[in-house]
Amino acid sequence: MNKIKITALVLALAAIFTIPALASTSLSASDVFTDVAGNFAEDEIMDFYTSGIIHGYPDGTFKPDANITRAEAAAIISRIGIGVPGTGTQKTFSDVPADSWFETYVKNISTTDYLPGADDKFNPGSSVDRLEGGVIAGDLSPATDISGVTLTYTDLGGLTSDQLDLIKKLDALGVISMFGDDTYGPTLPLTRSQFVMLLSQVTI
Fold first, then answer.
1. Is pLDDT larger for residue 201 or for residue 110?
2. What are phi and psi of 161, to 5 degrees?
3. How many CB atoms lie within 10 A of CB 117?
4. CA-based nearest residue to 19, from 37, 2, 31
C-alpha cells in the first residue's frame, strides 16, 4: 500500500489528542496497540497507523470494535487526503467548537458530500453507519469493473442505483465480505476496524 504524506499541520493537531504514529513499517500490532493483534483488519490498521492516517488512544488501545464516530471518520478521510477538501463551500456547525481537536477535519469534510450535517449540527459523536461508510469508501476507491458483480445481500432494496454501484465496487474489491453473505446492514453502525477495512483500497 502506498504511503500517504500527512501535512505538518494535521500531524501537529493530531499529536495533541492522540498517540503519534511511528515511522517504522516493521512494527507489529502488539508493539503499538494492546487490542489489535489477531483482529481481522490487523494488517490494514497497521498500514494506516504507519502512514499516519489513524492513531490510538493514550491507554495504548485502538478500540477496533468500538463504533467509529463522525468526528473520527472525518479525521481519517482528511488524513487520507483524496477528494478532501472538496469544491463546496466550507460550513460551520454549532456543535463543532473552534478549539475542538476535530474542527479542522470537519471543515474539510464540509466541502464534500460526505457526512453532511443537518440543522446547523454535525453530530460529531454520532456513529457512522455501514451505508454512509460504504458510499464514502466506494467513492474514494479506484475505478473498478463492476459489470460482473451481483450483490446477494437481501436488505439493499431502498438504495439508489448510485449507492448500489458503490457497494458493488467494494464487493469487487473484496472488502465487504466481513459483513457476511446475507445482509449488508446499511443502517448498522460501523466499527473502527470495519471503517479502516472499507477504506483500505483507497490508497492503492
1. 110
2. -65, -35
3. 19
4. 31
Cell numbers linked to 127: 456513529
Give CA–CA dist 100/122, Å, rounded.
13
* Cβ proximity of 178 and 40 under 8 Å: yes
Instruction: Decide if 135 contacts 170 (C-beta within 8 A).
Output: no
pLDDT one-digit tens code per residue, 9-47: 333 334 333 444 444 457 899 999 999 999 999 999 999
d(CA 138, CA 72): 18
Query: What are the tens digits of pLDDT across the range 104-141?
Result: 999 999 999 999 999 999 999 999 999 999 999 999 88
Q: For the chain, first and last CA: distance in Å?
A: 5
